[in-house]
From TrEMBL:
This is DUF2188 domain-containing protein. It comes from the Bacteria. Pfam families: DUF2188 (PF09954). It comes from Metabacillus arenae.
Length: 123
């Protein structure tokens, strides 16, 4: 039985979406080659995580959400000008997450005082 994006082993559920999709592809290939499911699952996870680590090398861009002058700003690290400004932090984070769907980025979210609240990676 092949796995899909909606029907996959429960041990895949906590993987980042891109890593999970890669694990599904690898797992399906292993099943096609005759591996048993209980052996294919850990191999697929391990190989997908290695793939994700290689994907997230030096090409990973960082975007930061921070507060400045009564606005929440989304800006690519190293750029002088902001990508966008927003009235709410949630709107800035939503836009950053939208970028993550199509790009290999890390989203750094700061609190209003400038300290880092969280780093979001979605390999």
């Amino acid at each position: 039985m092949s796995w899909t994006k909606n029907d996959y082993p429960s041990s895949f559920k906590n993987l980042p979406s891109k890593t999970k999709n890669k694990a599904i592809d690898i797992g399906n290939s292993l099943l096609d080659e005759g591996y048993e499911e209980d052996r294919a699952i850990p191999i697929a996870i391990s190989q997908a995580e290695k793939w994700a680590d290689n994907q997230s090398g030096s090409t990973k861009e960082e975007y930061v959400v921070f507060y400045k002058e009564d606005k929440w700003v989304l800006k690519k690290q190293g750029n002088k000008r902001p990508t966008n400004t927003f009235t709410t932090k949630e709107a800035a984070m939503d836009k950053g997450r939208e970028f993550m769907k199509n790009r290999n980025i890390t989203l750094i979210v700061e609190k209003q005082d400038g300290s880092i609240q969280q780093r979001i990676n979605d390999n």
